[in-house]
């Protein structure tokens, strides 16, 4: 204990009197301060536990184990029902018609891009793809309620966050084809988008790593927000699936975010599956929301098919995250993964077709918003047809253009780790060059910028 801390504590005790208690400890004479203290809990008439590890817990003489399975499940927040009707008309949707239309168009755009890219993978034109079907409302709705300067960390099924922030169709396609215009210089597999300009960190395949990254970024933002009170305060927002929440990183991240009180919004997309693992095999608690309470984090469960609920929840979470210098918030957005996990998966090997068909028919964020728009006479079949046909053309145009682009220079396979190439890397480059020259038919590199010359460019550089 530092001298300053001890003397301050003693000064306070002096003020409070000889029998006073600090943090639930009582003073006795002639012993070091920490030995002079004992838990208030042990005093005869104490009503609450005041041990440092559990404050304000009332004593009870009833031996009753907490039985979460016997309690009501956490409620799910809704603004609009399945028929597109608003439940609390007084609050309404807090969304201008223009904005609702823009959100609707983006959700449709995402679903059309998904459909076409899935087909393109099946035709062998793309190596891999992941669709957002059934979860478009979560990514697009939440992104629409954040500030563009908020820093986003995604898992992989949140293309809607990118789209809503302004990632263009060409940006998606360039990444999917890993061509020379790809932000990631062709180094990542498809759907691992990233955008420095849009404040979205690049997706990582390793599940849950983005969660502690977001907590750390939020800690940095907390300091920046307090150092720059005249600037727009920022939060970090972190998306992950309920399966990723089984990783240790989830727990470490939520705990540090809570103890450091950082402005981070954790958005869990609970879509019922982690590839082939249904939630019933993943956990026994009440979803992911119940874990928020365990970490002392403000938590809400939301109907992810209800775009207005997603928006309002995110808007309020953002305000809460910036309260009192910062605090984390957890939102569990409920959805159903309508598509296969990825193009490498056939989900009918582990779930019934009828289950998927039921969900498709029962509820969907796009059809629900469409019902609301139609109810307000903002939308009809003719507009729908026109939107679908123009969007399809736009996606195909971007796709064909990206497909024609050259691949990035081969040099990018080696650069960007060390400032200068090491001797070992130089040996690898030479070896690769030799293999390409020996097997020109197997390794046709003409489609790469600069061909095999891309490797010569780096060999010409000064040795590291
Ligand atoms: C550390 C790690 N373990 C396993 C995997 C393989 N894997 C990729 S996605 C996935 C399921 C994740 O499910 P969830 O978080 O619920 O997201 P969803 O796919 O449902 O959107 C698994 C197990 C991985 N990528 N990284
Ligand atoms: Mg999942």
Automatic annotation (TrEMBL):
Annotated family: Belongs to the BCKDHA family.
Cellular compartment(s): Mitochondrion matrix
Catalytic activity, reaction form: N(6)-[(R)-lipoyl]-L-lysyl-[protein] + 3-methyl-2-oxobutanoate + H(+) = N(6)-[(R)-S(8)-2-methylpropanoyldihydrolipoyl]-L-lysyl-[protein] + CO2
Ranges where the Dehydrogenase E1 component domain occurs: 104-409
Gene Ontology cellular component annotations, sorted alphabetically: mitochondrial matrix
Keyword annotations from UniProtKB, A to Z: Metal-binding, Mitochondrion, Oxidoreductase, Potassium, Thiamine pyrophosphate, Transit peptide
This protein's record includes keyword Oxidoreductase: yes
Name of the featured protein: 2-oxoisovalerate dehydrogenase subunit alpha
GO BP of this protein: branched-chain amino acid catabolic process
Function in brief: The branched-chain alpha-keto dehydrogenase complex catalyzes the overall conversion of alpha-keto acids to acyl-CoA and CO(2). It contains multiple copies of three enzymatic components: branched-chain alpha-keto acid decarboxylase (E1), lipoamide acyltransferase (E2) and lipoamide dehydrogenase (E3).
Cofactor: thiamine diphosphate
Organism name: Paraphoma chrysanthemicola
Highest taxon in the source lineage: Eukaryota
Assigned EC number: 1.2.4.4
SUPFAM superfamilies with a match to the protein in the record: Thiamin diphosphate-binding fold (THDP-binding)
Sample GO molecular function, one term: branched-chain 2-oxo acid dehydrogenase activity
Entry-linked PANTHER family: 2-OXOISOVALERATE DEHYDROGENASE SUBUNIT ALPHA, MITOCHONDRIAL (PTHR43380)
Gene3D superfamilies, sorted: 3.40.50.970
InterPro entries: Alpha-ketoacid_DH_E1_comp, DH_E1, THDP-binding
